[in-house]
TrEMBL record:
The chain crosses the membrane at residues 102-121, 128-147, 153-170, 179-195, 201-218, 230-256, 308-325, 337-356, 362-381, 388-407. Keywords: Membrane, Transmembrane, Transmembrane helix. This is Glycosyltransferase RgtA/B/C/D-like domain-containing protein. It comes from Thermosporothrix sp. COM3. It comes from the Bacteria.
Length: 531
């Protein structure tokens, strides 16, 4: 039985049209839901950073406020720049800030499902392409991040396109398209790195793929005395790919443009061991963010992914291993997919970088994980069809659709907090409460301030000006009523996320409202005691 991925030769009109319809529905969802989600803790800073970066471009490098205008401890220049510049550019033309930001971010999520569909097309044809796109859209922690995570979400989306381009390159490695595909892969890696430096992991992945190609073909080339010509062409391809990615980083990341080699190395060093001294709850224990156990990343992937996708991903890993044991070789695209997931996962486990905020900093592992699940579904389906178990194959498809429907139901119940989804391995949100990071973005502050804006007069009926304190003032400021003023000393009201025990401040104040998510108290509002 041949388990290798075959490139689809005939397009299927039905799944292609369904995929187009799905993408249009996704775009519509972005515009309809953009104002529903709250701002994250990082968004005010990221938005200002994007405007500073845009000034660097519009002044032809003279304005360097993206470096000088921020506390050095934040390491803003070492953070990727390209997506923040895009957001700032669109805001410049719309003359509007937060709705524009949410829409652009949401469209980046739609781009991700298009990239997933392209990868799915390479793996198993149009039906797998459709299923891959749906699977990413219905991955709760991906969907929950599309409106307000301008770092990890766009990076995950671009990762889909990088993987697609790599799959194309592997399939066409011995064709005339190789050099043009090297340009495409190089540009996409550079684009991804200009969002998050993690994208440099693609260099060793490509090196391993190339080494594997030489292991398979080296003896034949030696017999044909073609080693030097082929080696020369591969060196040219590698230089072309690496040079294109480096040039893309220089053009899309002002910090790299100022001192390409030194600043690229520094960005990697800073971001791989980010100097954040906070603590992280994990499995009921509290750890320093820089000293997390090696099980941190695998555990988070296990408890925050839909269980059916975990099962099918395991199947998707099993079949290639079986093929490797039987035939002593592995089809290139299968190897690329396994490496796209396994290599960065292994790096995170072994290097133990500073991590926090649950899965968001390695959200880019989700697309290859789901694509392994798509491969598992395809392999199971093909096995059942090959053995004439058509009824069982039909049941398999129904089970996949049912699993997506159940996840969709859970997402609706969590809305708009899909990014704190937990599966039943830990008992859902209620079971994870108190053991793992929950509402790390504190987006609950938006409905909290809206509630206070509607009810403050019940507690301060004779006051025209209301004083409020909040550690999330930057997040709630766009939504506060016009008569609200910030004051930390003896405010009338205190509004806070419960993260980092913020909700325990002002202990003599009385709690008048709580934003609760499936039993988890995410935000509290307190009122000053009456004299």
């Amino acid at each position: 039985m041949d388990l290798r991925m075959q490139h689809p030769r005939r397009n299927s009109i039905a799944p292609a049209l369904l995929l187009l319809l799905f993408c249009l529905l996704a775009i519509g969802t972005v515009f309809l839901q953009a104002d529903v989600y709250g701002l994250t803790i990082d968004e005010p800073l990221q938005d200002a950073y994007g405007r500073s970066l845009l000034k660097w471009y519009t002044t032809f490098g003279h304005d360097q406020s993206f470096i000088t205008g921020y506390d050095q401890a934040l390491h803003m220049p070492e953070h990727g720049a390209s997506f923040e510049v895009l957001v700032a550019l669109v805001q410049h033309f719309t003359h509007e800030q937060w709705h524009t930001r949410a829409v652009v971010n949401g469209l980046a999520g739609v781009a991700g499902i298009i990239g997933m569909a392209l990868c799915g097309l390479e793996i198993g044809g149009w039906w797998i392409a459709l299923l891959a796109a749906i699977s990413l859209w219905l991955y709760p922690r991906f969907f929950g991040a599309i409106f307000n995570n301008s770092k990890d979400l766009p990076f995950a989306s671009v990762t889909c396109f990088v993987l697609w381009a790599v799959l194309l390159l592997v399939r066409s490695w011995e064709s005339r398209k190789r050099l043009s595909l090297c340009l495409l892969v190089g540009f996409l890696i550079g684009l991804a790195a200009s969002i998050r430096i993690n994208a440099v992991v693609w260099y060793p992945i490509l090196a391993v793929l190339l080494a594997g190609w030489w292991l398979l073909h080296g003896k034949k080339l030696l017999k044909e005395r073609r080693v030097l010509p082929v080696l020369g062409s591969h060196i040219i391809a590698a230089v072309l790919l690496g040079g294109t990615s480096f040039l893309a980083m220089i053009l899309l990341w002002p910090y790299i443009a100022l001192d390409p080699v030194h600043n690229l190395v520094r960005a990697f060093q800073v971001m791989s061991q980010y100097p954040w001294n906070g603590t992280v709850p994990f499995a009921g224990q509290i750890y320093p963010a820089s000293q997390l156990p090696r099980t941190f990343v695998p555990t988070w992937l296990a408890i925050s992914s839909p269980p059916a996708m975990l099962f099918f991903a395991a199947v998707g890993c099993f079949f290639p291993c079986l093929w490797l044991l039987r035939r002593r070789k592995l089809e290139g695209r299968t190897a690329a997919l396994l490496l796209a997931f396994g290599a960065p996962l292994a790096a995170l486990v072994l290097m133990r970088p500073t991590l926090y905020d649950s899965i968001r900093q390695f959200l880019f592992l989700v697309p290859p994980l789901l694509l392994l699940a798509m491969l598992g579904i395809k392999c199971l389906y093909d096995v059942l069809i090959a053995r004439a178990y058509k009824l069982a194959a039909g049941v398999l498809i129904l089970l996949v659709l049912l699993s997506h429907a159940l996840v969709g139901k859970e997402m609706l119940e969590l809305h708009p907090y899909e990014y704190i989804y937990f599966n039943q391995l830990v008992g859902g949100v209620a079971g994870a409460n108190g053991k793992y990071e929950m509402d790390y973005w504190a987006t609950c502050t938006k409905p909290a301030i809206k509630w206070l804006g509607e009810h403050y007069a019940e507690y301060m009926p004779d006051r025209e000006v209301i004083f409020i304190a909040s550690p999330q003032w930057g997040q709630i400021r766009p939504f506060v009523p016009g008569n609200f003023r910030y004051r930390q000393k003896t405010p009338d009201f205190y509004l806070a996320s419960t993260r980092f025990n913020w909700g325990r401040q002002y202990p003599d104040y009385s709690v008048i409202h709580t934003i609760t998510i499936q039993g988890y108290d995410a935000c509290v509002i307190k009122v000053r005691p009456t004299k």
